[in-house]
Amino acid sequence: LRTCEETHPECPKNNFTPELPSYVVGVSPDLPGITARLHKPAAGEKAKCLCLIYCWGTKGQLTTTKSTLGVHMEALPVHQLGLIIQDAITTTRRLGFRYLWVDALCITQNNEVHKASEIKSMASIYQNATAVISAAAASASSEGFLAVERHFSANHPLDSRAWALQEHKLANRKFVFSSAELLVECRAAPRYSSRRSLRPSLLSYSSYNWSGNRRWMDLVQMYSSRALTDPEDRLNAFEGIAGEIEIRSGKKVRYGVPQFGCEVFSWFTAVPAQARSARAPSWSW
Ligand SMILES: [Zn+2]
After folding, report:
1. Are 108 and 175 part of one and the same domain?
2. DSSP state of 212
3. I need a labelling partner for 37 at 20 to 30 A (CA). Which of 145, 251, 262, 273 fits?
4. How far is the CA of 215 from the centre of ligand 1 (A)?
5. Ion ligand 1, residue ranges at CB < 5 A
6. Is 268 exposed, middle or buried (0-12, 13-18, 19+ CB in 10 A)?
7. Which pLDDT tens digit goes with each residue over 202-222?
8. Ligand 1 center from residue 67 Cα (angstroms)
């Protein structure tokens, strides 16, 4: 991380300290044990922050709701959190960071207004993170990723999750906990691995060269074959990528379709078509 910050011209520098999101998990080293609490930054408060990318899984997990928000700001019941979040808190602390962003805790799940505003901010949350922790090999929040023995696999549960695509594509640096090893990637050093012979295919985790029409098509292809818990999130989970395409190309993106030309209307499905969301017009995907 130090080498990246000090020597890579493509990567954010050590002095890049962005504004914090609306809530973060505070894991300050002055808190004893693995205690943590939800922190609401003051307006304009800046600090370095890590983000967690993971599969929620089908079983419920402890989240922040309107009724638990106050309690979580006092202290998070760390031992009731999914093992994946406990491991992310440990990783954040051991790397010397004070803040971690985890969607389940930092978005008030039953507050639709907060949820909508955080979905709008998702791109900047992942882009501003000093690094993301990607628990690629875990299939649910109940599984940890530190000190876990796994069989090697080139395919990881996170590969099939729709939300995870933009989270990986937007991040500047990644610590990917794959089935076989820890991979470190940044904009200058893609797919750096400690044991290259075991390196799985990491196309899904790599950072992205955003320019060009064809590349957008590749992203839609990668994205649209992935799974969403709520099909109504189809455009929401692509919003960060759409926003980046708008910035880079100068073209507006409407319902997931940029104003590049008519090539985008030659749609066909490689997988069985799913029910179309009523929120998008027929020419969207
Ligand atoms: Zn770098």
Report:
1. yes
2. S
3. 145
4. 23
5. 4, 8, 11, 186, 188
6. exposed
7. 444 555 555 555 677 788 888
8. 41
